[in-house]
Design brief:
By secondary structure, the chain is mainly α. The chain has a two-stranded antiparallel sheet with strand order 1-2. Helix 2 packs antiparallel against helix 3. The longest helix is centred in the middle third of the chain and has 41 residues.
Length: about 160
């Protein structure tokens, strides 16, 4: 099950509020004989003009959302930096930089990881790096999204 509507996964039944309901019989698939679908023919790559138009539409949408996105990012950084500074005793400036890196996909040593197993509660990236065998195979929520988005979204895996 996915915890947010922008990330659709079709493994479970939908949660519908009345008066909406789903008729399973009308949605049952019907297998028919036929050729294999050539997806490149059915859904050809975008042309140069279509790619340019898509880029333009994305840029316009990003521009329209830029103010809200910047405010949300600033709020997120401030909220998480404050907690990090209190927990670790680092300056707010250092805490903010750590959270900015987190937003960019870089997990610095002081970041607390939201493990699914309570045994690993409050463990940080530094703890994982210090004893990777202990954490090998452990699952956790997405470090950026947090447990509110759902557990089991990430896993610690070691390379040989």
């Amino acid at each position: 099950m996915v915890g947010a509507p922008e990330r659709l996964v079709f493994e479970g039944d939908p949660i519908l509020d009345p008066p909406l309901e789903q008729d399973r019989d009308s949605r049952r698939p019907i297998a028919v004989d036929g050729d294999t679908l050539d997806t490149l023919k059915a859904c050809p790559p975008l042309t140069i003009a279509e790619t340019a138009r898509l880029r333009e539409l994305k840029a316009k949408a990003a521009y329209q959302l830029a103010g809200d996105a910047a405010r949300a990012r600033t709020d997120f950084i401030n909220e998480h930096a404050e907690r990090l500074a209190k927990r670790t005793g680092v300056s707010m400036q250092a805490a903010r930089q750590t959270i900015v890196c987190l937003c960019e996909g870089v997990l610095l040593p002081d970041v607390e990881l939201p493990f699914d197993d309570e045994t690993f509660a409050r463990c940080t990236v530094s703890d994982v790096l210090a004893d990777p065998d202990r954490f090998d195979g452990a699952t956790l929520a997405d470090p950026l999204e947090g447990a509110a988005y759902g557990v089991g979204k990430a896993k610690i895996m070691r390379r040989t």
